[in-house]
């Protein structure tokens, strides 16, 4: 990278330390020679499985593939050329004023006109600012490189036509899904029938909710990739742990034998090391690919979120650009596999017969593959009722999946209060464990083999072992508030207490108090740490950030008495309308996805981690189990 002596010279590439040759600008505003950035892109992508982007050599910011995904050799061509620095790089060889040179004069350049794209001397710069025609031009001193670079970046037009950069986008072709200029309309698209003004199609796109729909799909895509990444990182830890266990077992046995095992031990450990490295390398490559897709989807989300105040031209250009990139990204992800590798070692039974041993142990690599993206869009899935559990003596207000087939239910205000673990299967159910108490339990959440239960009798949160229901700890609510719904996210416990949502650490220390409207009984927290709560009296669902700043509020004439709110692994929100007899499914951004009708008085709706089963408590007494497919 460039030395400190070169940092003030805008014409020097920070990679090759030479004058720019066809400088390409990255979204992070760093600029490199075409050849330099092309070589840099290709090099790290060789070790990745189906690469979709790269990191900036300087700031390490992720850059989504600017050209065809999966073809890193062409990505540099998709980066915009910084024409101003290209011209400046050539003119700085003589460091003379371009305007004076046209009059056969030689004056040292002190400034640069961004509009004219040339270096000028102090005298020309003065008259440049005075002249009526050029007084609006952007002129900055060359001795202030940061100002020059900022002006160069600001000069790049985002609303220009992709095919004709010197012309503005004014029209849109619906047949080809392209934003274009008038020249494009009279040439390539002259036979197209669905051509509208950019303002008209932008208004239709915004009103039609297509931006929010695409934003939700990208968000769900990111959440699913995050789950895959978490599983694969856990697999990495498991491989390390298993490898360590095998190593310890090997060493312990090795100490019991004599020198004859030296050779066998070395052969075995070498094999173990090789298998471990190969397995981890394979997973690391897959994780890198998943991480790149997560970065790519976040980049898409950021760009889509930034369109709110963008011009119509920028909006449609960016919208189609992100949509097309996202569609190609999903296609490129279809054939990508999720790896799961397990190590296994079967110690030979004949080890003690030293002279007969030919191999220390047999190492097995259990490697399974499955598609990365297994879930359908929640908008397209069907909910099929499998069976219904009748609990006439119960009054259940809350529950939570402990595993994909076991759910914990809090029995509230019933003849037998307490907890109930139910095993849910495809065609039946069974009672796993039950705990009776005189206290009133309202809601329950699960975290690391522990159950967090809101106890309204003691006005506290009780923490129990999910294995035997023994109490681990208990913490009292601030100001003796009555706890209702509970949610856990990133080592924090969130408790809805009608007039406030209390945020606690897992050990019971109060972290924050969020004032809310009275009758806010249920709460959930999204992957972005946004707090969503429902209010049964105002018929609203509200989302706030970690500081309590409102982000959005959902109100619908079809939603009445929203007594519960929960989310699935992809951050889709499920709001039970106890009076409207339906469940509203929202995106994490507060837009309606669909409504599940004809569900009598849904107290809550929980979706399993796999996303293939959900449990709905109807009328506080009936548990309905649905298959999602």
Automatic annotation (TrEMBL):
Gene Ontology molecular function, alphabetical: zinc ion binding
InterPro entries the record matches: 6-blade_b-propeller_TolB-like, TRIM45/56/19-like, Znf_B-box, Znf_C3HC4_RING-type, Znf_RING, Znf_RING/FYVE/PHD, Znf_RING_CS
Highest taxon listed in the record's lineage: Eukaryota
Residues annotated as domain RING-type: 13-60
Gene3D superfamilies: Classic Zinc Finger, TolB, C-terminal domain, Zinc/RING finger domain, C3HC4 (zinc finger)
Domain B box-type: 92-142
UniProt-listed CDD domains: Bbox1, Bbox2
Pfam family, one: zf-C3HC4
Coiled coil: 211-267
Keyword Repeat: no
Keywords of the record: Coiled coil, Metal-binding, Zinc, Zinc-finger
Protein name: Tripartite motif-containing protein 45
Record organism: Magallana gigas
């Amino acid at each position: 990278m460039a030395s400190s002596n070169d940092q003030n010279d805008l014409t020097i590439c920070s990679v090759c330390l030479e004058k720019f040759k066809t400088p390409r600008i990255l979204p992070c505003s760093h600029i490199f020679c075409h050849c330099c950035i092309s070589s840099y892109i290709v090099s790290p992508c060789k070790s990745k499985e189906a690469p979709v982007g790269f990191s900036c050599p300087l700031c390490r910011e992720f850059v989504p593939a600017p050209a065809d995904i999966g073809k890193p050799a062409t990505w540099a061509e998709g980066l915009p050329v910084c024409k101003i620095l290209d011209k400046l790089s050539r003119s700085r060889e003589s460091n003379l004023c371009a305007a004076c040179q046209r009059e056969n004069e030689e004056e040292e350049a002190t400034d640069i006109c961004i509009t004219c794209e040339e270096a000028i001397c102090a005298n020309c710069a003065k008259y440049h600012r005075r002249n009526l025609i050029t007084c609006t031009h952007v002129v900055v001193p060359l001795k202030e490189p940061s100002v020059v670079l900022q002006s160069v970046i600001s000069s790049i037009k985002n609303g220009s036509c992709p095919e004709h950069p010197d012309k503005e986008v004014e029209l849109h072709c619906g047949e080809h899904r392209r934003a274009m200029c008038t020249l494009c309309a009279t040439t390539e698209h002259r036979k197209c029938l669905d051509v509208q003004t950019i303002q008209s199609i932008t208004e239709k796109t915004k009103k039609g909710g297509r931006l929010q729909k695409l934003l939700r799909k990208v968000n769900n895509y990111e959440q699913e990739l995050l789950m895959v990444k978490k599983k694969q990182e856990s697999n990495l830890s498991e491989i390390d742990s298993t490898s360590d266990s095998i190593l310890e077992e090997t060493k312990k046995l090795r100490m019991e034998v004599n020198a004859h095992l030296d050779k066998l031990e070395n052969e075995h450990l070498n094999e173990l090391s090789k298998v471990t490295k190969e397995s981890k390398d394979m997973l690391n490559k897959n994780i890198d690919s998943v991480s790149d897709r997560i970065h790519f989807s976040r980049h898409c989300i950021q760009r889509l979120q930034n369109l709110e105040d963008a011009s119509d031209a920028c909006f449609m250009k960016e919208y189609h650009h992100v949509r097309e990139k996202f569609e190609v990204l999903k296609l490129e992800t279809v054939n990508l596999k999720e790896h799961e590798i397990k190590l296994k070692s079967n110690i030979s039974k004949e080890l003690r017969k030293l002279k007969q041993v030919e191999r220390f142990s047999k190492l097995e690599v259990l490697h399974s593959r499955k598609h990365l993206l297994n879930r359908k869009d929640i908008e397209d899935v069907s909910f099929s009722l499998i069976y219904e559990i009748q609990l006439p003596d119960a009054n259940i207000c809350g529950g939570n999946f402990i595993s994909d087939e076991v759910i914990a239910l809090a029995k509230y205000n019933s003849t037998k209060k307490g907890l109930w673990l139910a095993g849910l299967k495809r065609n039946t159910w069974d009672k796993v464990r039950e705990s009776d108490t005189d206290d009133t339990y309202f809601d329950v959440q699960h975290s690391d083999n522990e159950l967090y239960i809101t106890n309204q009798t003691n006005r506290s949160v009780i923490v129990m072992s999910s294995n035997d229901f023994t109490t681990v700890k208990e913490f009292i609510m601030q100001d003796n508030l009555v706890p209702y719904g509970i949610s856990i996210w990133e080592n924090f416990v969130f408790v809805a207490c009608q007039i406030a949502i209390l945020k606690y650490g897992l050990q019971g220390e109060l972290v924050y108090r969020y004032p809310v409207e009275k009758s806010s009984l249920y709460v959930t927290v999204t992957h972005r740490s946004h707090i969503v709560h429902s209010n049964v009296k105002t018929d609203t669902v509200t989302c706030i950030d970690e500081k309590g700043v409102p982000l959005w509020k959902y109100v619908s004439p079809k939603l009445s008495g929203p007594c519960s709110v929960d989310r699935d692994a992809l951050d889709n929100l499920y709001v039970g309308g106890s009076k409207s007899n339906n469940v509203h499914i929202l995106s994490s951004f507060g837009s309606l996805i669909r409504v599940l009708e004809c569900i009598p008085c849904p107290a809550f709706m929980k979706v399993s981690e796999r996303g293939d089963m959900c449990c709905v408590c109807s009328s506080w007494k009936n548990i309905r189990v649905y298959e999602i497919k």
